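Supplementary Text 2. Reproducibility record for the structural model of the 390-residue chain.

All settings were left at their defaults, and a single model was retained for analysis rather than an ensemble. We include the record here because the model underlies the residue-level annotations in Supplementary Table 4.
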Amino acid sequence: AHYPLIKRYGLIEKTKEYNISNAGKGYLPQVSLSAKASYQSDVTEIPVDLPGIDIRGIRKDQYQAMLQLDQVVTYRARKEVTRATSEVDKQKLEVDMYAINERVNQLFFGILLLKEQLKQNQLMQEELQRNYDNVAAYVKNGIANQADLDAVKVEQLNNIQQRHTLEATYRAYGEMLKIMINHPTPLTENTLKKPDVNALLYKGEAYSTEFIRRPELNLFAVQNQQLEAQRKQLTAKNLPRLDLFVQGAYGNPGLNMLKNEFSPYYIAGVRLSWNFGSLYTLKNDRKVIENKRRQLDNNRDVFLFNTRLEMTQQDQAIQSLEKQMQDDDEIIRLRTNIRKSAEAKVANGTLTVTEMLRELTNESLARQSKALHEIQRLMGIYQLKYTTND
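Retained model, structure tokens:
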């Protein structure tokens, strides 16, 4: 509702109204005014001289003012083409607007992922602090040395640096999403909730195109209607044109050429005109429109083909993540056991602190992988929704 591109809908609608209004005015009477003054070297004379009758010749200087009104009876199909063109413009805008969904999805799930990473970072920091306290006690008891304590401190500082980076990215994503949807306040972990959805799987149905409801398909449909309107306009362009006309004039001479004075007069009639020149290219013009229609059908087939490929890839990716998630909890459980065993060995002096820290990092990475798989699965589901608009 707040994206600047949305304003273009109103502009397209206004343009359509103006163009349709102009097309409709083509049916209104066309009025023209003309005036003429001329002098000619010779005029028509009656070669008869009748005694007692004065027959005046036509004046060599002549004057005329004329008002002409033309009414078109048959007219080209401009309105239909105008409406079709407007629908194409609006549907192109729908396609552009639909792409915003993907950008919002990326920001939304990016925030959720960063939120999980910050949570795991905090847990890692707590574990490091606990181990730092333990190692500090070992140093006092002579089990460990200062280098071991420094190694834990280095890991704490690295973890803090990573947290600063995550927090900066988290704030940036939240601010971007806030701007995108015109939210009054910054988007935080209390604002965004992880969606609870099931995967949209198209297994066993060969990823049928019946699930695809993208706006691009509507664009192909209205472009096809536009070509049909252009075909009708082409036919109308080559039909005879019938006009009614009325001419009202005042001049010298009038219709009576022998009456040497200014007088009003009018002429009314019907005019039929047919431009045969456009018939020369009519056949090729129709073939051009038909070729455009075939190209449009091909573009639609290519779009559906590529979309089905995307559906296949995304659906398989979701299934793969779900299988990985089945093992995540077991991996975490085993990593936790290994880490606890390593801590016990450090306490007994049979394992170095560096090796124990490696196991602690492996446990943290396992927990991060689980969180990553959960968010990636959700993002994959919504990406599949975006691909199909189902």
